[in-house]
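Q: What does the assembled structure look like for these inputs?
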Amino acid sequence: MKHDYIDRYSKLESPVHSLDPRAKAIALFALIVICVTTPPRAWWAFCVYAGVVLIIAAASRVPVSYLLSRVLVVLPFILMVAVFIPFMHKGGTSYDLGPFAVSSEGLLVLWNVAIKSTISVSCLILLSSTTPFPDLMHGLERLHVPSFFTTVAAFMYRYIFVIVDEAQRMKRACESRNFRGRWIWQARTVGYMVASLFLRSHDRAERVYQAMCARGFDGTFPLQRESSMRAADYVFMSVVVLIVLTGRLAVLWK
Amino acid sequence: MEVIGLDTREAIRIESLSYHYHDGTPALEDVNLTVRRGESIAVMGPNGAGKSTMALHLNGILSGEGRVEIMGLEVCGKNLSEIRSMVGLVFQDPDDQLFCPTVREDVSFGPRNQKLTQELVDQAVSRALTWVGMEGSEDRSPHHMSFGEKKRISLATVLSMDPEILVLDEPATNLDPKGRRELIELVRGFEVTKVIISHDTGMTRELCDRLIIIDDGRIVADGHTDELLSDSRLLELHGLL
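A:
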């Protein structure tokens, strides 16, 4: 079975793709941290952040439609909560909308959540679609992110498709026996499917671990080859951080 | 004196090995087996007879009562890393065997656990991949490969450790005829001691002179492959026909 995977465009060739994963991770995480700590009324600062994101996106040659579709997958979850805030929150001028009243303070909260989450999510999507996932994990490891996290993520990347395949096979086998899973009384069957998927995954985890032990695994992951950052990586990192910091600090002085 | 001379020629020695599952169900009962170096033996038996359980004892993943020796070395805690370098165990499902995001990492996992230097690890990886005819696939990820390719890479992950004994659990299952043929030729080319668990009588005949049949946790037959496979009464009795 074929799948869409999260680092689909990560093997393109572009100036952004050829950067060291560490440089990209540090620059984009810095952008995220600086962005979320910016006061919501600092409109210009957000323009600077968005501009940086757009420039990196353009340089990466990843199709815009793909980036947008990815952003749109994540955002609704955040906005679903935030969209009610202007109606509940009191404070500032309030605008009358027939049966509802919208407060300006509440609108500011909505803007704050919307712009910060859009920029943060875009950064993460740019990072994951310009860096092959394994390289990203090794990069993070070298940045001393605890190997527990990178290992769990690497296993997830490897096995999510195996589990999806297994679920699909199970679903097809059920459907072949005329099961549609549409009605509430069929929930029991779906429950059984989820349970058996869980048990199978648990058994698989056991077998994977045995296979690892059979090749001499003793609980610590052997280190990968080292690679060093080049001048271009340092330049990218410092330019991004400097521009973003300038945007942030300009607001403070005003 | 002759005993000492004989000992060094043994690849595997299993003495009165018994193993029980957590719930007390016996999986292996009083198994005795000696395999000489360079020998290729096939292991057959009905589902749940204990074939895989026995294989997992060969490198100490499981340990029951009794004694297992590999190349004259007892399988026990302090020898485990040495034993696991000598016994290359290939699991039935390549998705269990291949857990890394890239082929290179998977094939180098064993050598890196052996604490080899980077240079030796790289050599071991390219040698193993060439051996199984998958050179140049270092940067591909296993989950986008065909089943036959995954099987080859699984083999490479243990070949890279330079094992003395190769233990293959159902190597040809689910392969298409061409893939099966290629795998047989591949395995035939490895000049190490081989233990092959399989239901595939054709492959067994081609690769192994000696056959043991396990049923209900016991070795019920041990002899020449052609002889045992032509004994239809024996095969029928143990659910192999």
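Chain A is about 70% helix and 5% strand.
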